Amino acid sequence: MKAFLDHLILSHFRSHQRADLALDGRPVAFFGPNGAGKTNILEAVSLLSPGRGLRRASADDIARKPEALGWKIKAEIAGDLSHELETGAEPGHSRSLCIDGKPAPQTALARILRMVWLVPSQDRLWIEGAEGRRRFFDRMTMSFTPNHAEAVLAYDKAMRERNRLLKDMVRDAHWYDAIETQMADAAAKITQNRHAALARIAEAQDGAETAFPAADLTLIEAESGEALHAPADFATSFAANRSRDLAAGRTLIGPHRSDIAAIYAAKRAPAQQCSTGEQKALLISLILANARALKADTGTAPLVLLDEVAAHLDAARRAALFDEICALETQAWMTGTGPELFAELGDRAQHFSVTETGGRSTVAEVTP
Ligand SMILES: Nc1ncnc2c1ncn2[C@@H]1O[C@H](COP(=O)(O)OP(=O)(O)O)[C@@H](O)[C@H]1O
Ligand SMILES: [Mg+2]
Prior knowledge:
The chain folds into 2 domains: 1-114 and 301-368, 3-Layer(aba) Sandwich (Rossmann fold); 124-299, Glutathione S-transferase Yfyf (Class Pi), Chain A, domain 2 (Up-down Bundle). Helix content is 38%, strand content 23%. It has 10 helices and 15 strands. Strand 14 and strand 15 (360-366) form a beta hairpin. It binds adenosine-5'-diphosphate and magnesium ion. Adenosine-5'-diphosphate binds next to helix 1. Adenosine-5'-diphosphate is lined by residues 14-15, 32, 34-40, 62-65, 335, 354, 359.
């Protein structure tokens, strides 16, 4: 089974005034100099999943300058199910979405296309704050459990309401009870989904034939380190923390504060102490495990967006990555500066050259 984009049209999307790609389900490699517009294409694909895409950009940032007209992405999905997705924004408006010609909420995208990505800004994922790790892991979780996106939205919405009460120094318990019940329900779902994802990733790494190092992941929950699981646990704990949260003016415990720790399994070394290259290898390894697990669960591998990954690998590792991607039968989207980085793929992939002149990108398919 497969799900892939067979047609992608960008209009007024960053450096692409218009790009029109015809695809056949093989992995896609984009090469070209820095600033040519390669990451912009991956960003467009990432906007076919819920959220703000791989740059977390606002709709207005994306609109091609200097015109600042509305931008649009049109994608046709082929494979076992076919769908037409159209997303974009008019100037000053937020992003809108149509699925098969009908307006739809972004969360619906999670059920149509499963997608995971790795971008250079994640190179410091293990060293920097928990937020990036949470986002990385929640994306994995969403790939396994599409309704994770709704649970996260519901939790964030209720928490914002609670934080407003805390800021206004509201002390009346009645105001909190209802909101905390909603938060607790969502928190329990989020936690359950995350644990399920963790188990699937661990399973997919067990005994896998891969050139990339296994990572042992642990979910670090709440500040006290105690694991909460049932809605009632969360509700009790939110109520018990009210006075502390009032002093802080925000909610201090809950799944929005969880973190993910990784151990480089073969060395028993925490990821943050590994070399830059090892940290990157761990991330690639997790993305591949994610894709294998999804393929085992659903029969379909997710789209895998790998921005500037090839350049960081030696030739042997790169060849191994390509072999693993081809074995997964996923439409991987990859970028790199030169065509030689993708030569090993040969006709197992589609190759596109991306160039830029006068602030306008041109994308052209080439034969390797
Ligand atoms: N809103 C925009 N309008 C026009 N050009 C943009 C916009 N946003 C980014 N760019 C241009 O896109 C180029 C970067 O594209 P990118 O895809 O990141 O390059 P790369 O090929 O190195 O991945 C830069 O030259 C930048 O000026
Ligand atoms: Mg780039």
